[in-house]
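ok so I'm stuck.
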Amino acid sequence: MQYPTQRMVDMEIKKEEETKEIDDTATAAVAEEKMKLSVDEVIEKYVGSFGLSQLLQVVLVSFSWVFDSQNTLVTIFTDAQPSGWRCKTSAINASLSSSWCMNDTAGGGGNEGQLSGHVCGLAAGSWEWIGGNSATTIAEWDLICHRKFLAAIPTSLFFIGSILGCTFYGRLADAWLGRKKTLLLACILTTITTFFTSLSPNVWIYSFLRFANGFARSGNGICSIVLSMEVVGNKWRGQVGQYGFFFYTAGLLSLPFIAYPIRTHWRYLYWIISLPPLVYMFLLVPLVVESPRWLLVRGRNKEALEVLRKLARWNRKKLPDNIDLIIPSQATTGSEGDKNTIGDENENIWTTRWAAKRMIIVMLFGFGVGFVYFGIQLNTENLNFNLYLTVIINALMEIPAIVIGGILLSFTNRRLLSSLSAISAGVLCILCIIFTTASSKNTSSSNWPQLTIEAIGFMASSITFDVLNIYCVELFPTNARNFAVSMSRASLMLGASLSPLLVAVGRLSPSLSFIVFGAFSIVSGTLSVWLPETRNAPLYETLKQQEEEEEEKHRRLRQPTMV
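replied:
not stuck anymore, here's the structure
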């Protein structure tokens, strides 16, 4: 037997070390071969632009639009002008007002002019509302005659609360909690404030609680639209943004059917609509996934990858194991430190010149859109139609608006579509003046033409409203997107907060309200021409990245063609 010599042992050890070095080198090479991809690239190549997982995500988050619209437009019924009044039997023999009350009972409808001319001159206690004092807030707290403008305060404060809420939720979702947790918080606060609104003892407490409710619910729409659009491919963003508005329409359409059976008790309506957000946050919010884009810009790459793997599994696909998520600007800078930050911590929309200019234009545009969109809906009580039927017709007009808007978004530029729809809404509002004038002469024959023009005008304003929400998401990057959407919605709410005052004026002069709504819509439509086109553009991750890539794109377009 031959025993190994020391030389043979040394050679064997050296061979093992060389093998280990080769293995280590190979492992390092594999590690270096990791694919550095952006979220957009992962979605397009491996997850799928729009599959079952994204559809479930869109449906889950869009349910929040149902109670968002219910809380926004509930005052159409709770704060409506009462349907009519009548003399009290005990007051028929009253010496002061018996003859006047008896002679004018037949004319005691809900028209403001009639109330001012009749009820305001009657002795207290000689008449009563036909539906009872608990039918609306106006009936319960006597918000008529010299107190009639108090009826506009709760709705105006609701929209002002929404303005502050948009700013709060936008910053909260971008910088701290993320989209999903912010949505959960909004649901909790919406349920609480809606329920306590039903317990209001007077118009001032009621106004404050409507303000709080506006603040609370504003986070629902902001987070919903962003959570929907940040998990799909570029070509599906417009359509996905439109899908959520079907649920908003469902919420609006449900209101007259809920309100009619309980039309003599306005407080019951608030009790009922406080339940959907409570059910939603327990049953559906836990199933929603956080935005992988937000997780990435917060430096939580592993969590972002896990979300994308989950979405891919539901689409029956699989992500490669060697994917390394990056923000596109990091691919050129190669900075490892950037992976744990959003970029420059000091950068924001207002300190970035191009973003600030863009945001101001969006807000001015949104102000006019919100004023007209919500104003037309609140102005339904000034039409010569049954209130419940008018709201149903307007809600149904949202459906063709969503369908038409979704189709047009698939092949039409955002800038052109938002401009033309706003101008069309303004022209149709002004056309309503013709039928308003005719209606004052012959109410029986001119109501349907007036309602038809109003409904088509509302459909056009609805398209503008929907497109603006989608447009704003595409105009700004991930680290400022929620804030941008919140500022856009704040401007919508600011416009909406002024519309109840015009509705109050419209009770005396309907033509004036239509002229103002039309003019605002036309002017707003001209503002969007100063915004860049975003159709088929990528969703950027940081302000710096978007600025660099858009400048490069413009530089290439400006370069002269060589002959």
